[in-house]
Structures are given as C-alpha cells and as structure tokens.
Here is the input.
Amino acid sequence: MITVRNVSHRYDKQVVLNEVGLTLPVGELTSIVGANGAGKSTLLSVVSRLIKPESGTVFIDDLDVQTAGDDAISRRLAVLRQDNRISARLTVVDLVRFGRFPYSKGRLTPEDHRLVDEALDYLDLQPFRDRFLDQLSGGQRQRAYIAMILAQDTDYILLDEPLNNLDMKHSSSMMTLLRRAADELGKTIVLVLHDINFASCYSDHIVAMRDGEVIVQGTPTQIMRRDVLREVFDMDIHVQDLNGVRLGIFWTTGAPVGPGPLAAEAGDTTRDEDGARRVAEPASITIR
Amino acid sequence: MRPVHLWIGVAVLAVGGYLSLGIGAASSVGVADLFPPTAQDWHLLATSRIPRLMAILLAGASLSVAGLIMQRITANRFVSPSTSGTVEAAVLGILIATMFFNSTSLTIKMLIAIGTAILGTMIFLQMLQRIQHREGIVVALVGLMYGGVLAAITTFVAYQRDMVQFLDIWTTGSFSGILEGRYEPLYTVLVVGVIGYLFADRFTVIGMGESFATNLGLNYQRILYVGLIVVSVMAAVVVVVVGAIPFLGLIVPNVVTLLMGDNVKKVLPVSALAGAAFVLACDVVGRVVIHPYELPVATIAGAIGGVVFIWLILRSAKGAAV
Here is the structure.
C-alpha cells in the first residue's frame, strides 16, 4: 500500500502540492489526472523519492521512502519520469539489463537474463534488441524504457505519462499490458495520464488533482461525470456511455450529446436534417 | 567489438612497441639489434627504453579511460581532463608543491597535484550543474575557458617566481625524460583503473541521469564523486610524470564509443588499449621525424587531436547523434 501523509511542496514560492494525503491500495491500477500544473508529476516524484518534499511522509508498505535507502526502495518500486531522455548510446538489451541492477549489481544470473528476455518480449522489442537507443523511433524508445522498468520486477510501478510518444496502437497495447500486469501479476500501478478516456477505460481508481490538491478520487464511473470533470479540468466535457465504458468528448466544444448512432460506413442509410433519405457514399479514397 | 578492431589495436601495439624499443638517440641500439640484445644493449633498454615504453602505455591507457569515465558521468562527449580544468589544476598543484615545499620528491608533487586536480574538477562539475543544456558543446567551451583561467593563474604565479620555463615540463607532455626510477609512480593508475572498472556499470547508470540512477538504487552524487576522484588521480599522476597530452582523453574515447556505444564496462578495456596505441604511435612518430632529436608527444598528439576534435564538433553541429 502507498500511503501519502500531509505532503506539501513548493518550487520557489509556487505551491505545487498542498497537504496531500492519499492511500493507494495494492494490486490496482490507479491513474492520476488533472490539468497542467495541477501537481501530478510532482506527486509521483515525491512518492518515488525523486523529489524530497518540504513536509510530509510517504510510505511504501512499511518503508519510509525518504529514509529507507535508495537500494531497498529500488527493489520495491520502479519509476519512470516523463523527461527521460538518455544521451548515452546504449543498446536496447543493455538498457533493459540495467533494470536488473538493483539485484545483480552488474553480474547477471540466468534468472536475470530470463526476466530481461521476458520484458523484451512483452514490449515487442526482440527485433530491436541490439539497436542503439538513438537508432529507434520515439515510440520504440519509450517502450525500451518501460521494458527496463518491467525487468526491475517491482511490486509497485509508477509511470509519468507512459503514453508519451506512442501512437494509438501502441498506446492501447501499453495500457492493456499494464492492466494485465495488475490483474495477472498483482502489480500496483500508478500512472499520470493526460487522456481521461484511457484513464476511464483501464483504471480501477482515478485520482483527480487541481492546484496541488487531490480534489476527488473514485472509480471511473464516479469520476467520469460532467459535473466532476468540470471541477477538475475547468471545462465542459460531455460524457457518453458506450456499452458501460464512459468516454469524455472533449475534442469539440459543441454539444454532441445523446446516444447518437455510430458513424456511417459506406452503404449505410441515414436521414439528413430535412428528412431526405440518403445513402452514404462509398469511401472515395483508396486505402492501400 | 568486432575482432578486427581488436586485432588492429594489438597490431599497432606490437609494431609500435617494437619500434619504440628500437628507436632512440643512442644509435648503438637500433631496430635490428633487439634480437638478441647484448649485455650493453640490455642496460640501455632496461634503464631507458623499457621504462619509456611502459610509461607510454600507462599514460595513454589511463588518460583515455579517464576521458571515457568523465564523458559518461557528465553525460557529455566534450568533457575530458584537458577540457575541464583537471590538467591545469594539476599543473598548478605541481607549481605549489615546488614553491612551498621546495620539494623534488615525486610523491609529494603527485599528492598535491592529485588534491588540486580533484578540487579543480569539482569546481568544474559544480559549474556544469548550473548549465541548462548539459549535452552540448557549450560545456566544452566553459571547460576550456575555465582551464584557461587556471593556466593563467599558474603562469602569473610562475612569472613572479621566475619559473615560467619550468612549467613547460608539465604543460607539454614528453616521454624523453623517462628513465628507470623516474616513472614508477605511474603504476598507481593501474590500481585506480581497476577501481574504475569495478564501478563501470555504476558510471553507465549515472550517465543515464539522476532519476534513472535513483530509480535503480544508486546514490547519484556519491558515484559522481567516485568518478571524479578516479579521473582526477589518473590525470594528475600522468601530468606529474609525463606532462599533459592534449585531446587524448577527448578523442580516443569518442572514437571508441562511436563504434561501440557507451556501456562503460564494454568499452573501458578497448579505450585503454586504443589510448595506449595512440600515444605509442604519436611517440614513435615524434622520435622519427627529426631523428636523432625528437618532438614531444604532446605536439604530435595535439596536432592530430585538434583535427579530430574539430571533426567531432562539426559532426555534432550537423545534428548527428553525438
């Protein structure tokens, strides 16, 4: 269990965390959402002891993250920050092997190698294993970092915007993978996410922050409501229920409310506003 | 590392080592006289040419490894003992040792030079932490200017004490003064080199950045300081015994990591080998071009190194992955 007690922090005079208290249960996937500057990343950094807060404590199970020592924490909790550019030219497999460093201190056992291979498999990185990081696309590199974190094989995994640089396909497979890690391996996963719909579809628990405070938390059903989201993001977000999954429609400010039909496919019949029946044109573009 | 690079390195070392033993001002012992040497030849070899060869190999290997470690722990390819004030601080230390302790003992000079080198490099690292874009060439400029300031202070002090020409011995590295009994402290670098190798993975990890290092359970600052001490000791010892060899610690590790990547454990032995081979080649060339006189190794290495340095800068300015 992650227990955050009365954590406050300032950058210069700007308060970024104000008396935050929070407990996150084991084995769940929690997403932290909120606008830019709400304090999400700072909270994640404090929980993972990358930032020492001005006041307050954080416990991972029975370990105080500030005093337990980096080495002990590194076998319990793995964290990946958002600004994770590595300038070193390392190969993918070397990077992932460093995920085993807290255990192996550089001398890898067969068990370490097995876990490294598993992490590479998980993230589809076997074809790139001997490539240098600077020869990868942004998305492949992001997956390599995540593979390193998985190889670290900790009970707690904290990721700041893990979908950064990932295309739609890899974003959804990353979330599926994290969901599986929580369900099958009992990992406790905490993510900072920008896209509330990913948070809604994959989380057990959503923590919403605003101005350095946790203003509301709950299940996706409890959080994904127009009135709640307005408080969190200070904007109107229409929420649609699609077969039990709640999606926030934030791409347009108009109000496409109501259980509208799915978009027409070629050959479907629809009715125009004046009631005239109309057959949707076959797609006029060619898909190769 | 493809074996071909390794074999090239070994071949350069073998041929260079042989030439190094066979070439010198004393014409009585030439390249052809080594198989087998007479008792008289052997005396020359043991007192002068073998110590010289050992000094070349140790100095080349350790400056190259020092540069490699420094580039990794600062995550900047343009940092090296000669572009961060380390060497200049060591020279200042030697001057202080000579002035205040009036000492001719190599050990005293070495200890003080190590102390000033550590201090000088520490100041550089402090400056580095205040620079926003730590990866770029700006860092090298800051380092070179900082080294220039230290060198100016040294020259000023030496000028007051009428010791300017005496500084040349250390600012211009040369192996011509190496004799049996005058170079043995150089073997210290072997011990420090082993320590560096044991910390190789940790250096790689802190080179990934502070949050990666903390995540993997390492105390970033502590490892940074271990690296700082390893590098400063290596550089200071070489400066005391041989003198400064410019650019070596910059260009050799850069070329090696360009080919093999930045995993310190993998590239450290190769960097050592390549550094030794490079200095050996420079020294042999320096002894041949104006035979029976010789050019100091620093001149040859500086000429080659400067060109390679410019190439590296242009390469990074073009936006290649540095």
About this structure: The radius of gyration of chain B is 19 Å. Chain B has one domain: 3-317. Chain B is about 70% helix and 0% strand. The domain at 3-317 of chain B is CATH 1.10.3470.10 (ABC transporter involved in vitamin B12 uptake, BtuC).
